[in-house]
Amino acid sequence: SQIDNLIKIVVILTVVVVVSFAFNLFFKAVIEADALMMRNNQFIVCANLYNDVDYQKIENPTFQNRIQTGFEALEGDGRGYQHVYTGLYAIIGDLLAILAFLIILCVNCPLISIVVIISSILSIISSSLYGKYNKKRKLDLQDKRRKSYYFTKTLSDFAYGKDIRVFDMKRHLLAKFYKATDDYLLVEKDIND
Is the pTM higher than 0.85? Predict the structure, then answer.
């Protein structure tokens, strides 16, 4: 009967989900340590290259923005180099689950499977467009972050305190700090909206 067939489909889909989830956990556990070691080795290589840079480039804000963007790829587990590496392997289990779902859907409900495929394609296109826009604004974001960090560091560093008081620069520096922080937050908001 139709109810027995529906129960069978639900059980098969549940088994596919559970197996896919276990497969993903296993893959992620196996490659996490390797990815961490690869990221650390890459960070050492980049840090050594940075130590050999000419002093003129160190003072160049455009160079600093690019360096910060490059090092951001090596920052943490949930982003950049290690995140991409682990995500590529974790996607294998997801692709197997999607393939199993599509086969089951195509056999039982071809119309729904067409809708699922079209919506997936639209989702991939929108994610790709967002990624391209995010990448385009990355250097601008680094520039604003660097300026905001500079004023934060200057205003909170005890070594600059006397000069700020003697030359009465508090209001001037605070105004620049607020502007730099607002500019940074505007770019961040623009990227995330």
Answer: no
Q: What pLDDT is stored for residue 7 in this prediction? A: 83
Top mean-pLDDT range of 103-112, 115-124, 151-160, 173-182: 173-182
pLDDT(171) > 80 = yes
SS3 letters across the chain: CHHHHHHHHHHHHHHHHHHHHHHHHHHHHHHHHHHHHHHHHHHHHHHHHHHCCCHHHHCCHHHHHHHHHHHHCCCCCCCHHHHHHHHHHHHHHHHHHHHHHHHHHHHHCHHHHHHHHHHHHHHHHHHHHHHHHHHHCHHHHHHHHHHHHHHHHHHHCHHHHHHHHHCCCHHHHHHHHHHHHHHHHHHHHHHHC
